[in-house]
Amino acid sequence: MNTLRMYVLLIRASIRSRMQYKFNFWLSTLLAAVVNATDFLLISIILWKFDNIQEWSLYDIGYLYSTILLSKALYRSFANDVHHLEKYLVSGDLDGLLIRPVPVLLALMSQNFRPMFGECIQGGIILTLCLSHMMSIGQVTWLAVPLTLLILVTGAALLFAIGLGTATFGFWITRISDLQNLTEDAARTAVQYPMDLYPLWLRTVLLTLIPVGMANYIPALYVLRGEFGWWLLPGVMLFTVVFLGLMLRFWKLGLTRYQSTGS
């Protein structure tokens, strides 16, 4: 509880700092919403010409798109600078976090708190429209709503674990932006669409080595199609807990290898 209280205090301080530039904050929020809305609009225009792709309708794909977008928004809102660890390693600013009386990861997560309202609003609208349509045709029931909320939280934790594992490699290679493009950006973009479209080797990578498919695609198989059974979501949650635990241990190992810039 003391750790949680400290995190909340650091977040509040970060928000006060960011809100010193209110116009910049709200403008960036608006632009983020417009960019993401345009992105999905282009996808919708292309998919509108087809009844379905590999038996996935436009609304099914909208569900995949919005859940991964919202999970990413949650992760990046509460742990944004984990994704930007490279700048701390290059500049030596990580030294300042090491001398704080809080865990280094907690201090890093509370830096530059960035609530991603644009992505949350846009993702929420798409998710609401898709679920409403699927309920109206009887594809899903009201139970899909609480299950989807659970998927969003689990997905955010899984994306955080992937981001943390990728960032930890920075303690050895320093420059990790290209690696992040692969493990976070490219992988997350891939699972915006049904994984049925991809060859077996790529599906295997997205479910094991970079398990981002566990964040939305695998849970959606049960929520939207009733495949596998009720145990699928608890199984994904257990996988997320184990994977996150492994990445936290990997982070601790990487931290022991950190060498200051000496600046």
Automatic annotation (TrEMBL):
It comes from the Bacteria. It comes from Paenibacillus naphthalenovorans. This is ABC-2 family transporter.
